[in-house]
Design brief:
The protein is an alpha/beta fold. It contains 13 helices and 13 strands. The chain has two domains: 151 residues, Rossmann fold, CATH 3.40.50; 151 residues, 3-Layer(aba) Sandwich (Rossmann fold), CATH 3.40.50.720.
Length: 316
């Protein structure tokens, strides 16, 4: 594939670019037909991964990043549709808002209440959530365990990514799920939605299989003693000066720590996990698997997982 395609694409496009897209289309040697939409979005590795997949499959198009603020999302969505885009990925903070823009929502995405993948086909837009199954595949790959066998503590249950993780744990009927959020009412509301997945004969003695607790050290200390997997779905760790969402003193060797943040340098949470003897991993494997699932939705063919994985190296 021509290197000119790489040279003529901007690192990040914005709404103003979309409004004048005909001029931009003339300046790129390959058409941009796919993209990731977020605020911020410059840090996303989706373009690197998806463009590797397009090249591997000899698909003559490109995938780009679009910096779109929440008030701009509706106009941008209309423009993407008018410009005959094949599909989009949505990242923070658009995963929940995106639900109201598409004409159809896949059943599991509807249950989750958030979408991260949009398919434009036959004049119709459909929203999907590949974060949830992508997370399940990532946990199995990294830790060689199945979600259904785990007691999971989720930090950050209020956003789109947190909802996807919580719902996948519920769909897999995990052993136990504890939802932690600074606004505990959000965790309680999500627990109420998911309660039906945790009722029935599978009982852990006096322990509730589904709980919502505040983001407080005393509450976390009690819960972590009976937790296998900790998932960080908060934004703490995206900036190098961010503190760990969990105090170092609460971590223990029996824990598995999965941080959805996938920057190259370890977050403070993952650094603390290593120091405590716990197993830890960042979110690159979830990025990989959700991206592969999105590719398959757009093109109805198997994703070139090896090429996509290689594109994320050396971090992965």
């Amino acid at each position: 594939m021509s290197s000119r395609a790489h040279l003529t694409m901007k690192a990040v496009y914005d709404l103003e670019d979309l409004r004048g897209w005909k001029k931009i289309a003339c300046e790129t040697s390959l058409p941009i037909r796919l993209g990731v939409v977020g605020d911020p979005v410059a840090q996303s590795l989706s373009p690197v991964m998806q463009n590797a997949a397009l090249e591997k499959n000899d698909l003559a198009m490109r995938y780009a990043s679009f910096q779109i603020a929440p008030p701009e999302l509706e106009e941008a969505f209309d423009l993407f549709r008018q410009l005959n885009f094949i599909g989009l990925n949505l990242t923070t903070p658009h995963k929940i808002a995106g639900l109201s823009l598409v004409e159809e929502v896949e059943e599991q995405a509807q249950r989750i209440g958030a979408i991260n993948t949009i398919v434009f086909r036959d004049g119709k837009s459909t929203g999907w959530n590949t974060d949830a199954p992508g997370f399940e595949r990532a946990v199995r790959e990294v830790f060689s365990v199945d979600l259904r066998d785990l007691r999971v503590l989720l930090l950050g249950a209020g956003g789109g990514a947190g909802r996807a993780v919580a719902c996948q744990c519920a769909f897999e009927h995990c052993e136990r799920l504890v939802l932690v959020n600074r606004t505990v009412s959000k965790a309680q509301a999500l627990a109420h939605e998911l309660n039906r997945y945790f009722s029935g004969p599978r009982v852990l003695g006096p322990e509730a299989r589904l709980e919502a607790v505040p983001f407080e050290e005393a509450a976390l200390r009690i819960q972590l003693a009976r937790t296998d997997l900790v998932v960080n779905a908060t934004t703490l760790g995206r900036k190098h000066f961010d503190p760990s969402p969990l105090p170092h003193s609460l971590l223990a060797p029996h824990l598995m720590i999965y941080d959805l943040i996938y920057q190259a340098a370890p977050t403070r949470l993952l650094a603390a996990a290593e120091e405590s003897g716990a197993r830890g991993a960042n979110g690159l494997t979830m990025l990989l698997h959700q991206g592969a699932l999105a590719f398959e939705l757009w093109f109805d063919r198997p994703a070139p997982l090896g090429a996509m994985r290689d594109a994320l190296r050396p971090p992965l």
